[in-house]
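Quick one:
INPUT:
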């Protein structure tokens, strides 16, 4: 009677030994990599950290051909029924880091929920993430949270989402399309809507594009609404310049692969009257015409202000400021019109524009046609 028990114990011991010694992790890894290759995703590297009846833990996941995508740890959850039916249930990711050129995108606490499709070569579902951080950015942006949907087939991956800050002031709605490397289509992300506060006003984007290959990596038109003029002046001349009033307008911009911005005929205007004060030592010394400009701008009360910005053939930004108004202490307070070309080094901008004024009389003559 003892032999059957002995055989049973030996059989269990043999099964356990096979389970413990068999290279299950490598088999799982190879199977997943082969499945991804059939869907057009290659060169995915990862390690299988642990296996259980209800999930697999992956570590050190990297996809070099997808913008240097790196995942520290991910847990793929499933049930035995899911495995029998060949379906996935949920994927939880602790951290995702995506590097595109010099831009880093980090997502924390990502949850991906899969949905069932009748076609076996199509996968999809919903995603949600906390603490979405993008660095570096030209303006400070708080951590965002977001959710959306995704659809994956051998031809492309489509991700749609909506990201917001905790105070709802920052909002981004996007649609991202990713194609296999050998595809004729270019992977890119469409920024359907982006809105964020900036210097007392707001900037919004409609239908912008982020492209991952090619010369042009970003293209959009920034709609600037009621931004403080003081900010713009101090960005050019530091604390030696102040201004009151607000400006609005549109800035069409393209960012090249090397980070160079190209501005296409942007126009910013002040909707209301305001005041500009530029310190005397902020403008380099020059001839008599420069002295006139310095005097006028030391306390200029404007009733019209337009700033046009563009990029020249050498990929250098240039701007022209047209202001109409008066300095109460000069020319008996008569109205004048200044047409100032802003190019090259910021501190010499006004000096370079001095040839516009051949003599002080020209300012007065221009002022005769300006509104008081």
């Amino acid at each position: 009677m003892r032999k059957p028990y002995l055989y049973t114990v030996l059989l269990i011991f043999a099964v356990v030994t096979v389970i413990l010694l068999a290279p299950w992790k490598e088999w799982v890894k190879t199977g997943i990599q082969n499945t991804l290759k059939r869907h057009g995703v290659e060169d995915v590297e990862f390690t299988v950290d642990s296996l259980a009846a209800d999930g697999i833990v992956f570590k050190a996941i990297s996809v070099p051909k997808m913008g240097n995508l790196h995942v520290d740890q991910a847990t793929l959850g499933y049930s035995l029924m899911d495995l029998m039916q060949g379906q996935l249930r949920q994927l939880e990711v602790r951290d995702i880091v995506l590097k595109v050129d010099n831009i880093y995108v980090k997502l924390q606490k990502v949850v991906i929920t899969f949905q069932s499709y009748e076609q076996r070569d199509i996968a999809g579902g919903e995603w949600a993430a906390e603490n979405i951080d993008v660095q570096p950015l030209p303006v400070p942006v708080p951590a965002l949270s977001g959710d959306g949907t995704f659809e994956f087939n051998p031809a492309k991956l489509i991700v749609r989402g909506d990201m917001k800050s905790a105070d709802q002031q920052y909002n981004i709605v996007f649609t991202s399309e990713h194609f296999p490397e050998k595809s004729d289509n270019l992977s890119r992300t469409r920024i359907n809507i982006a809105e964020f506060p900036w210097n007392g006003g707001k900037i919004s984007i409609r239908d912008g594009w982020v492209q991952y290959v090619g010369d042009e990596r970003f293209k959009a038109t920034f709609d600037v609404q009621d931004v403080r003029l003081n900010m713009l002046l101090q960005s050019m001349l530091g604390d030696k310049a102040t201004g009151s009033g607000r400006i609005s307008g549109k800035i069409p911009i393209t960012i090249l692969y090397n980070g160079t911005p190209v501005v296409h005929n942007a126009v910013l205007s002040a909707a209301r009257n305001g005041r500009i004060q530029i310190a005397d030592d902020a403008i380099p010394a020059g001839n008599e015409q420069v002295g006139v400009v310095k005097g006028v701008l030391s306390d200029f009360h404007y009733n019209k202000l337009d700033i046009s910005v563009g990029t020249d053939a050498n990929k250098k930004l240039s701007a022209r400021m047209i202001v109409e108004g008066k300095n109460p202490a000069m020319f008996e307070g008569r109205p004048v019109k200044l047409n100032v070309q802003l190019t090259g080094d910021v501190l010499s901008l006004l000096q370079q524009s001095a040839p516009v004024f051949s003599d002080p009389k020209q300012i007065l003559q221009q002022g005769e046609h300006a509104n008081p």
